[in-house]
Design brief:
The complex is a heterodimer of chains A (115) and B (118). Chain A contains no helices and 11 strands. Chain A has strands at residues 4-7, 10-14, 19-25, 33-38, 45-50, 56-59, 62-67, 72-77, 86-92, 104-105, 109-114. In chain A, strands 2, 4, 5, 9, 10 and 11 form a 6-stranded mixed β-sheet that branches. Chain A has a 5-stranded antiparallel β-sheet with strand order 1-3-8-7-6, with no helix packed on it. The chains are: A mainly beta (115), B mainly beta (118).
Chain lengths: 115, 118
């Protein structure tokens, strides 16, 4: 069972445009929602993350919007650049005081930014 | 940020042989490391959770006798693919979570290992 659903599967955006990727989750116990960026042949790298106590978090050109009641969160990439072309994964987990949190990943979105 | 080093980045082995993949947290201690498998253009599939000093916890459907995990220290976990077959060819990725702090949050990923079994 897919704990985190992600869409679209692929996305093509013009340079300078806004890229929007959406995710939805079912488990209301989740309280940590990171986004990862992965380039071909590389491991994922954390891009930005949000806790459910805020509805939006912005870091540079990247913004997470979080809707707790709808159990949805999205990644917005402003002024998209060709260098942003990569696969993006949303994830969710439940934070724990001890031990490590198991991340549940979305299915990924392959973003292509065309010049 | 914290660094997780995974080695080797690529390996080609003959069918029937075993391959060991190492995952090291270079500048922090990690009591728990995770091993993932990723098929082309697909998401990361959790294979097992590796705990320092104890047996790994495997996800349903993952053969623990085939994918041996050892977490001998707070900075090293190894995944050994035993008697590898072509269907084991995949991209294997480890991650580690930093110990300490109020909450264990950010997971740091290795660079991944591309295994090709011929």
């Amino acid at each position: 069972q897919q704990q985190v659903k992600q869409s679209p599967q692929s996305l093509i955006v013009q340079k300078g445009g806004i890229s929007i990727i959406n995710c939805a989750y079912e488990n209301t116990a989740f309280d940590y929602f990171p986004w990862y960026q992965q380039f071909p042949g590389k491991g994922p790298a954390l891009l930005i993350a949000i806790r459910p106590d805020v509805s939006e978090k912005k870091e540079g050109r990247f913004t997470i919007s979080f809707n707790k009641s709808a159990k949805q969160f999205s990644l917005h990439i402003m002024d998209s650049q060709p260098g942003d072309s990569a696969t993006y994964f949303c994830a969710a987990s439940k934070l724990r005081r001890t031990g490590a949190n198991n991340l549940f990943f979305g299915t990924g979105t392959r973003l292509t930014v065309i010049p | 940020g914290a660094v997780v080093s995974q080695h080797p980045s690529r390996v080609i082995c003959k069918s029937g042989t075993s391959v060991k993949i190492e995952c090291r947290s270079l500048d922090f201690q990690a009591t728990t490391m995770f091993w993932y498998r990723q098929f082309p253009k697909k998401s990361l599939m959790l294979m097992a959770t590796s705990n320092e000093g104890s047996k790994a916890t495997y996800e349903q459907g993952v053969e623990k006798d085939k994918f041996l995990i050892n977490h001998a220290s707070l900075t090293l976990s190894t995944l050994t693919v035993t008697s590898a077959h072509p269907e084991d060819s995949s991209f294997y990725i480890c991650s580690a979570t930093r110990v300490g702090g109020l909450m264990n949050t950010e997971a740091f990923f290795g660079q991944g290992t591309r295994l090709t079994v011929v």
